[in-house]
Amino acid sequence: MLYAGTFDPITNGHLDLIRRAxxxxxxxxxxxxxxxxxxxKYSMDERLEMIRLxxxxxxxxxxxxxxxxxxxxxxxxxxxxxxxxxxxxIDFENEIQMAQMNARxxxxxxxxxxxxxxxxxxxxxxxxxKEVFSYGGDISGLVPTQVYEYMKKIKEEKGDK
Length: 161
What we know:
161 residues; alpha/beta; five-stranded parallel β-sheet
């Protein structure tokens, strides 16, 4: 199973889906993608490290990174299932359109499954987390503790205020 996203940064909403999905599959690949349409704050290496920190207790979770089309990654890596997370109705509208396009591009039988996030995480997005954090706001409880500590370390090293 593949759970793909930019994870800039990984949030507790992402981690909720990762934990739940890891219980229903043999191996879960958390695929960090380079999306030129999104300006990321954290480098690919930083995002991969945050995911590693957040998932280190989950034995069947591995990370990878890619650019280009999700469908190409799925085909090239023989992925049978793609997980997409949903927070609210607006997510479904966007995700279904993307899933239908990807289904058209898959050359093998690949299913997209949708999983609702826990309601306590439904308001969390990486964008909101980054904005609050950039202004010095407290994001504890929105990202895994290890990730929060890592983000503070990066901010300090870069001299961000």
